[in-house]
Each structure stands twice: as structure tokens, then as C-alpha cells.
Known about the structure:
This protein is mostly helical. Helices cover 71% and strands 0% of the residues. The protein is rod-shaped and about 175 Å long.
Amino acid sequence: xxxxxxxxxxxxxxxxxxxxxxxxxxxxxxxxxxxxxxxxxxxxxxxxxxxxxxxxxxxxxxxxxxxxxxxxxxxxxxxxxxxxxxxxxxxxxxxxxxxxxxxxxxxxxxxxxxxxxxxxxxxxxxxxxxxxxxxxxxxxxxxxxxxxxxxxxxxxxxxxxxxxxxxxxxxxxxxxxxxxxxxxxxxxxxxxxxxxxxxxxxxxxxxxxxxxxxxxxxxxxxxxxxxxxxxxxxxxxxxxxxxxxxxxxxxxxxxxxxxxxxxxxxxxxxxxxxxxxxxxxxxxxxxxxxxxxxxxxxxxxxxxxxxxxxxxxxxxxxxxxxxxxxxxxxxxxxxxxxxxxxxxxxxxxxxxxxxxxxxxxxxxxxxxxxxxxxxxxxxxxxxxxxxxxxxxxxxxxxxxxxxxxxxxxxxxxxxxxxxxxxxxxxxxxxxxxxxxxxxxxxxxxxxxxxxxxxxxxxxxxxxxxxxxxxxxxxxxxxxxxxxxxxxxxxxxxxxxxxxxxxxxxxxxxxxxxxxxxxxxxxxxxxxxxxxxxxxxxxxxxxxxxxxxxxxxxxxxxxxxxxxxxxxxxxxxxxxxxxxxxxxxxxxxxxxxxxxxxxxxxxxxxxxxxxxxxxxxxxxxxxxxxxxxxxxxxxxxxxxxxxxxxxxxxxxxxxxx
Length: 656
């Protein structure tokens, strides 16, 4: 082995001293870590490396060069130790002080990030320099082979320690600081978010977050983005703001949104809920979700990621319950078909259509795909369901043509219902929306349509209803009763439709035609019923008492008896008949009186004395002119109410 000079020994001692200084500094870093960090194993390996350097032997020239190599390795190691000192100083402020001054706290986190970045880079360089020293010693045989191998193993071990990710170089300080920052992020949002606890649906603005709070939130999110923790911020934001919106909605009383189809029998039982649904949906969209949308945009645009803001809003809307509103509408579309359901489907469509621009604005982005899909499904079911019920109306009119009309000459419920219902459909409230729905439905099917699609369909329904009148009238065995039925029907079409939407649709000439038909059947009724009675008071055989007084008296008694029996029979029968209109009843009574009374008075004045002196005259002369009129005036007196009739049913058995 070559002789080692004093100078070489001094260099080795200096290198060893420098390494020992490095180890001492590393120990100071260890004290601030809660658990044994990767610095401890590195320190132990450096100590071992220092010991291994002691038996180095080489000539003077080699050792001089070796000293230079050691100096170059020690410089980055010393820099690393200084940065560790900085990390140690940051520990107290990051973990012990409150996070009130967000800007200052974020500055310290950035300093920690920079320190860790430096450590990560320089640690690798320091290890590379140590590797160079060992390689140099090996190449120049400055140490025994066993010592060189030992030093090589130590450097490899130190290098592996730097690559070990189980323990971070800062002992978890950055994670702990970011956790505290997350907690501050949550508290900032929660403390400055206030739900709208109100049952009043007046126009009120949702209180926004203060500008300075928004700025602090954005600063925190920027720091979290740098550290790959933005998803956790978004989750916190959605959770807190979603709960706020949910609390606001709960104050409105939305228990009906929890119902299922099994909780009610038909749409009529939830009419009030549907009305409130429209009001609550409008309030929620315009005053809660819109405010939340604007807040998301404001925060995330400042943050520099509006797309992330849209996704955040979509999650808030879903968590707050927008889908519950839409699914309530779907539940209504699944109810059994009836006329009220058509109106309620149109009401729901109107509510959604009035909010169409709001829905497009709030839920038009990709993150709101589920909300958009459910909304489209609801609109399709509303339109298809409304059209199905509407087009079934004509079918119902035609199906009931073969059913027997009321036995009292009144009108079937179908006439009242269908005319009233069509007037509702043509009202200002429903005409435009139903026409729009019918057109949309036709366009979906690729079918042509006219602007008058609604009125054309209504005209077909009413004309089919009028056609039913002729068929129904022929089902009466009593022709006189059929005249009463037609008289009532044409009176109803003329009188009750005048001044209505249907009356305006069909026009004055159509109404006058029904008025003329009413008069026509009134005349036929009078002629076919009361008009037959005067013929029973025949003068034949009574003139000049041609057959003798006794024979004439017997003939007169027979005719008066026949007249009385027929009069009473007709009265009893017609007392159960219905004439709907008061004026029409009066007119019919006057026709009866005018037809019978003058003839009866004249007849009794001429031939009455033949029986008045007879002891049994009261059996034949039962009426005076006054009592006869009183009797006829009482006709139809207690039968002016609408008559019950057959129900309107679907061909499948369901109510219209």
C-alpha cells in the first residue's frame, strides 16, 4: 500500500468532519418530525460512509484530487440541510397558528412547496456526487476493496431512501397544512351560506357569497389545484351548497314530491299538488338554482375553469332535488287517463315551457346530461299523453251513439260534458298550449297539419255529438218524448253555446239553425201530444140532440170521460219528463193551454148543461177552465234538473 502523507490525512479528516456536520444538521431536522422520517436512515448511512472513509490510502496527488471531489459533494448536501432548517421553521406557523389570514397562510404553503421541490431536486444531485466519490475511490484504489464495496452499498442505500415514497421528505407537513386549508375552505362556504327559509313564493334574491369570501375561496382552490386536491374542494363545495339549496326547498313544503302512484287513485286527488308543483318549480329555478348557477360561474371562472363550475352546479342541482320535481311530473303522466288528466298535463307542460330558456341555460351543458334526459322524457310523455286523451274524445262520442238516452227526455251527460270541456280547451288558458302540443306531436310523427288543427278537431267532436242526437231520438218508443228530447237538445246547443268559444267557432247561422230546430220540435211536440185532445171533444151526434136528450147525454159523458182519462194519462206521463229551460217550459205550457183551454171552454159552454144537472156530473165534468189551466201550468214543474245519464268511458273500459 502506498505511503499516506500528512496532507492527505488532513484532507480525509476534513471530509469526515464535513460529513459529520451534515449528520448533525440532519438530526435537527429529525426533531420536528412526529415519526421517524427518511432523514434518519439517510443520516445513519452517511455516518457509516464517514467511517468507511477513514482507511482511505492513496498518494499525495490522488488525495489532492479526492479532496476536491469531496468538496463538490458537500456543497449540495449543505444546501439541503439549510432548506430542511427552513421547513422546520415553517412547521409551527402551518400547524399551530390559526388560518385566519388566508393570503399569509397560502404564502407559507407556497414556501413549503418550493422547499420540498428544492429538496427533491438537490437530494438527487447530492446522491450523484456521493456516487462519483465512491467511483473515483474505486478507480484510483484509494481504499481497500472491502471498504470501497461497503461505501458503494451505503450510497445505494441512501439513494433508495430518497426514492422511498412511504414517508415524504417533510414528514407529512404539506398534507397536514392542506388538510387545514380544506377545513378553512369548508368553513368559509358554510359560514357565509344562508338558506331561504320561507314559504312565501314572492320574488326574492338568494343572498350571494361576499366578494372577499369568493376571492379567498378561489385562492384556496388554486393552491389545491397545484397539489392535485381540487376534486376534494369540489366535493366540499357541492356538499355544503347542495345542503343549503336543499334546506331552502324543504322550507317550501315539498312532501308531495315523495308520493308514488300507489298513494293516489287519479289526477283529481292531487290537483292542488300539481298547482303547487308549478309554483314551486318556477321559484326553485328562478330564485335558487339560477342563483347557484351564477355563483358557480363566478367562482370557477375566476378560478379559470368554467367547465368544472358547470359540473359542480350539476352535482348541486342533483343533490338539491331537481330530479324529484321532474319525476313527480313523470308520475302524473303515468296516472290513468281521464279529462282532468289532459288539463293537468297541459298545466305541467305550460310550467316547463315557460321555463324553457332557464332550463337551457342552467342544464344545457354536458354535466347535466341526466337532468336533460329526464326533462326530455317528461316533455315527450306530456305531449303524447295529452294528444292520446284529446283524440280519444271523438272516439268516445261515436262509441256512445248506440247507448240509450235518458228516459225522461233530458240530455245525456255526454252533451254537457263534451260541450263544457271543449269550451275549456278553447279557452284562453288552454287553446294556445293545446294547439302547440298537437302540432309538436304531428311534427314528431312527420305528419302534415294546419294551424287550425285544434279547432278542426273540436268541430268534428261537436258535429259527431249533433249526429248522435238523431240516433238517440230514434231509440224512444214514444215519439212525443223524442220531440221533447230534441227540443231540449237544440235549445241547449243554441242557448248554452251562444256567447261561448264554441258558439264563436260555429257562428251565428249555426246557432240560429238550432233555434229553428228547437221551435220545430216544440211545435211537433205540442201537436203530437196536447193537440190530440181537442179531437176527443167531438160535436158529432150532439148537435140539436138528434138522437134524443138522454142519448146525447150518454154520448157526452163518454166523450168527457175519454177526454179526462187521456188528459190525466198524458199529465202523469209527462210529469216525469224534463224540459230544461224555464222559458221553454213556460212556452210549452202555454202551447198546451192554448191548444186545450179554448176548445174545452167552448165545448163545455155548449154541451155542459146536458150533464151538469145530472147527479153524477162530477164524474165527467172534473175540470173547470181555471183548474184545467192550473193543472197544465204545473206541468214539468219539478223536473228541471239535469238528468243522470251514462258515463263516458274509453273503449278499453277506462274513463275518458
